[in-house]
Amino acid sequence: MTAYTALLRGINVGGKNIVRMAELKELFEAIGLLKVQTYIQSGNVLFKSDEVQESLQKKIQQEFEGRFGFSSTVILRTAAQLEQIILNCPFSQEEIAEAELASEVESLYVALLSQIPPQERPECLEAYSSENDRYHIVGGEVFLLLRHSIRKSKLANNLQKLDAAATVRNWKTINKLVELAKAMNGK
């Protein structure tokens, strides 16, 4: 049985698309997923399943829209894939610390993509990269190091140009999800 984390895009943001985590948990249990638990209000759901990742993702998206009346992109990562995100961080501790000193908010984010972008697509982000907004694409993730608010970042606001659905989480959330996934696997 595989431990997964579902990361839902665009729920409970700015007072829109409100979904209570208890209702989200009920939905995942109703479709036969096991050991379901949620983490914070931004649409993070950990669970276990024997189903294949791609079909599971489609199933969750369809059931979600049927139950809540609006669509939400669902990005799935296994526990091992989440751990690999931590290992793949391209920014040094010094770079992260420097960015956090310049910013009053979180500086390191990861955009989790629905697919690896075609080779020519990453270049479209270069126009939005600067000393204040830097990125690295590693497989199906875009690591963002931002010296100012993510809401004001032209780089973060243009991720859709990669032609892949994405949802963004801050580094603290990614680390907590890894911790929870390890606990779910008994590690």
Describe this structure in words.
It is a single chain. With 187 residues, this protein is α+β, with helices and mostly antiparallel strands. Helices cover 32% and strands 25% of the residues. It has a four-stranded antiparallel β-sheet with strand order 2-3-1-4, sandwiched between helices. Strand 6 and strand 7 form a beta hairpin. The longest helix has 16 residues. It is globular, with a radius of gyration of 16 Å. It starts with a strand and ends with a helix. This is Cytoplasmic protein. InterPro entries: DUF1697.
Describe how the helices and strands are arranged.
Elements: E1 2-8, H1 21-30, E2 34-39, E3 44-49, H2 53-68, E4 74-78, H3 79-87, H4 93-102, E5 108-113, E6 133-138, E7 141-146, E8 166-170, H5 171-184
Antiparallel strand pairs: 1-3, 1-4, 2-3, 5-7, 5-8, 6-7
Brief overview:
It comes from Ruminiclostridium hungatei. This protein is an alpha+beta fold.
